[in-house]
Structure formats: structure tokens, C-alpha cells
Write a structure and sequence with these properties.
3-stranded antiparallel sheet, 264 residues, DNA Methylase, Chain A, domain 2, elongated, alpha+beta
Amino acid sequence: MLIRLKPSFFVIENVPNLLNNAGHKAEFEKLLRKLQRAGYFTKVSILNSINYGVPQDRRRMFAVGFNQEILKQWYPESASLKQLFEENFSWPEMSHPNAKEIHDWPKRNKFGLTPRKPRGLTIELCVWQAVCKKPDPEKLPNGLDYFNAYSHKFTERDEGDVSSKSFKRLHRYRYSPTSWYGNNEVHLHPFKLRRLSVREALRLQTVPDSYKMPESIPLSSKFKVIGNGVPCKLANLLGMSIQQFIHASVRNTQSKSANSRAVA
């Protein structure tokens, strides 16, 4: 699709296993070589959303590619456009580097109790942002869209117990595991006998409260769409990095053009 459409630049996002698994990595590198033969230089990295102010431990692989012809227009005198692109395009600066390691994150609390917020904790990185922040998520669009609780396990999981594959109960003063929802498997609310609502899941993905998912979409489909998304905050920062690279490249072209006219 990319090769057929020939965009000026592109962004690819996928799971980090494309780089961490030997078999997947070989196939992915084959794809990158195919894109390079089609006229693109790419830069690849694994970014964790929590390091960018998202209340979620979400590692994803990103690849940014630019059309070589565009780069030639911006840097006609460059001997190595590939090296120039790799050196001049920068990934977004982390606002919370090593976020998972710098805090003494709470472990587990008995369900139904109200734990204290640990001193010095960055609330921006906590599930609190999704379930407690005003306005009340239940009073917002999609705030009452959640699966009903039927299993006895809803009462047995401590707040912060995310050890099992299913029925992970989030801790309000801790970041969320990766939101990867499907087949009705949605994280449990920290202190209510239910799973997260669509609105709370959107908040974990830093989607603005002004965004509303249509009522006509099945509940399971809503959560699947949310789980497949890129957190808005990280997507915005990555978009700004691309914009900064484009602006700097255009300014370089304009400067070279002005200098040429001055010499003439």
C-alpha cells in the first residue's frame, strides 16, 4: 500500500516483537529493505508510552520513513541522505524517562479499602487519571458503557493484582498494564465491582473527554478499537517531531536558496 501510494513520509506502529523476535525481525527487516528500494529511508525505535506522560506501560515499535526524493530537494548537496535523515530526525523527548523505575509504586491493596497516595508520586502516570479525575467519567459520554460483572472473581481480586492473564484489577495509584482489549477481556476497575468503562479506557489512552464513540458500535468492538490505538499524547508528540524535522529541512532549503541568490 505504501509503495503504491508513494506518500512523502509515513509512520508504522506495531508490537515490539517485530524487533525482539528473531523470526519476526527478519521479516520486518525484509520489509524495510523493500521500502528502501522503493525510495524510502526509515528510522525505527521502541517507545514506551509511560515515558511520555501516558498512565500505561505500553511498549510499541515505531518506524518513520521519508521519501528520498523529498530529502534530495531539501538537501541537494548531501553526500549521504540516509545518514543525514538518521542524524537529524529525533524521536520525541521523554517527559518521564525511566518512569517505571523512579517511583516506589504501590503493589496491592485489599479490594474495597482506600489506599493513600504515595508521597512524590506523579499522578499523571496513574490510573487515577482515568477513574477519579474530574469530571466524573460516569457522567461523560460512554461513561456507562461497560460489561456487567457476573463472575465471583470480581470480588476476589485485590486492587493492583495484575498477576493473572485475566481479571487484572488496576491500582488507582499505579500505571496500567498495556490496554490490549478483546473478547470482553477488559481490566477491572480499581474500586468498583465492574470492568473499566469505554470512557475510562479512552482516558488510559489519553483520548480527550470531548471524543465520543458512537452508541451504534457493539461494546466489544469499542474496546477492541481502543486497545489497537496509539495513545493520543504519544501520537501528538511523534507528530510534532516529524513536523520539526520538516520545518528544519524546509528552512535549510530556503537558507541555501537565499545564499545562492546573494552570491549571484
